[in-house]
Design brief:
The chain is 31% helix and 22% strand. By secondary structure, it is of the alpha/beta class. The chain folds into two domains: 182 residues, Flavin prenyltransferase-like (Rossmann fold, 3-Layer(aba) Sandwich), CATH 3.40.50; 224 residues, CoaB-like (Rossmann fold), CATH 3.40.50. The chain has an eight-stranded mixed sheet with strand order 13-12-9-14-17-18-20-21, with helices on both faces. Strands 3-2-1-4-5-6 form a six-stranded parallel sheet, with helices on both faces. α13 links the parallel β17 and β18. α1 crosses α9, α1 crosses α11 and α5 crosses α8. The longest helix is centred in the last third of the chain and has 16 residues. The radius of gyration is 23 Å and the shape is globular.
């Protein structure tokens, strides 16, 4: 049977970042997803990240000549089995109720004859406003399915109904509407060692002074990235991921809820850590954005600076005509893009693996990347893959140099330094 197809419309609410996780969950259920993003949604999630997750073009321009020459707004709705608006802001709900079509998303919704599911997310006062409730009543009468929001704390600091339901709950509702079972075993991350909820993995720990990061969300990247040259070969580096994994473990032991985005490494997931495995820099960037918001982001991964501009579908063969040219293009700068992100972590820490002028290069990187700290180390020896490391922590206030120590000791010291910063 052909896979079910969902057209996901993402609008501009703070919960838009959860749409990336929803796409991942739906694809794990065997559902094909195509995305439409409103202009305001791109202020919260980049089309690049959404395109990586859907593995398809992201639509948004009502006046794209190629798309509209093929009557794109009609075809997009006809090619889907279900249209989902997630998050659905008060603004788009009002437009739907009034039949307004002033961009690609609302034009699709007015033109479709397919089932539609709206998943609202907004401030509690906006949700309770008579106009919103009147619009919801009209939409239900028009045959639109509405998924009630969750109740809880919001980004604005208020409490009440209006939170976007968690992506697994939304994915389950979508599966029900598509008439297929929702396999809960497929909701965890890509690694079979992923633990769905960090605190459930540490039931014997309690809140206390030995857990100074309890309640904080920490995002860690680790390992190398593999950039394909062809289906067999790739560009990589010698990063083992051990330092990043040690930092993730230390953060979990100190009470944080930890998400670890790991490149291709053969390491056991630390207890209490939510792990997501990726391969390329593009995938890592998408999963990093998907893991937001976070209080702290520690980008330890040795991301490849370049990737092949064109990757053939077949292995490149020797043909006797000499060495084939390899054209490279620059990978995204995950650290710099995170520094400019709408959901920028309160404390953003980058790593600098250097072979000379360690502190000098790290200081320049701190200014260039827009992060809060740079942790620099000398990798000219056997640090990559070795047991020990030595750090220089560069901040706007100066440089702290830490002696050569086992990587787990270094990791614990770094997390203690972070805990002091929040204290």
């Amino acid at each position: 049977m052909a896979p079910k197809r969902v057209l996901l419309i993402v609008t501009g609410g703070i919960a838009a970042y959860k749409a990336l996780e929803l796409v991942r969950l739906l694809k794990r259920q065997g559902i094909a997803v195509r995305a439409v993003m409103t202009q305001s949604a791109t202020e919260f999630v980049t089309p690049l990240s959404m395109g990586v997750m859907t593995e398809d073009q992201v639509y948004g321009d009502m006046f794209d000549l190629k798309e509209e020459s093929e009557i794109g707004h009609i075809n997009l709705s006809r090619q889907a089995d279900l249209i989902v608006i997630c998050p659905a802001t008060a603004n788009i709900l009002a437009k739907m109720a009034a039949g307004i079509a002033d961009d690609l998303a609302t034009t699709i919704l007015l033109a479709t004859d397919k089932p539609v599911l709206a998943v609202p997310a907004m401030n509690v006062r906006m949700w309770n406003h008579p106009a919103t409730q009147r619009n919801l009543k009209q939409l239900r009468e028009d045959g639109i399915s509405i998924m009630d929001p969750d109740e809880g704390a919001m980004a604005c600091g208020e409490f009440g109904p209006g939170r976007l339901p968690e992506p697994p709950d939304v994915a389950a509702r979508i599966c029900t509407m598509l008439g297929q079972p929702f396999d809960t075993a497929l909701t965890s991350g890509r690694s079979p060692t992923t633990i769905p909820k960090a605190f459930e993995a540490q039931p014997d720990f309690a809140v206390g002074t030995h857990r100074p990061l309890f309640g904080k969300r920490v995002l860690v990247t680790a390992g190398p990235t593999y950039e394909a040259i062809d289906p067999v070969r790739y560009i990589a580096n010698r990063s083992s991921g051990r330092q990043g994994f040690a930092i993730a473990q230390a953060a979990a032991e100190m009470g944080a809820e930890v998400t670890l985005v790991a490149g291709p490494v053969h390491l056991v997931t630390p207890p209490g850590v939510i792990r997501i495995d990726v391969e390329s820099a593009m995938e890592m960037q998408a999963e990093v954005e998907n893991a937001l918001p976070a209080d702290v982001a520690i980008l330890v991964a040795a991301v490849a600076d370049w990737r092949a501009a064109d990757v053939p579908e077949q292995k490149i063969k020797k043909d006797g005509n000499g060495i084939p040219p390899l054209t490279l293009t620059e990978n995204p700068d995950i650290l710099a893009s995170l520094a400019l992100h709408k959901l920028r972590p309160k404390l953003l820490i980058g790593f600098a693996a250097e072979t000379e002028k360690i502190v000098e290069h790290a200081t320049a990187k701190l200014a260039k990347k827009g992060c809060d700290w740079i942790v620099a180390n000398d990798v000219s020896g056997d640090v990559m893959g070795g047991d020990n490391n030595a750090f220089h922590v560069v901040t706007k206030d100066g440089v702290e140099s830490w002696p050569d120590s086992p990587k787990d000791v270094i990791a614990r010291r770094l997390m203690e330094r972070i805990a002091d910063e929040f204290a």
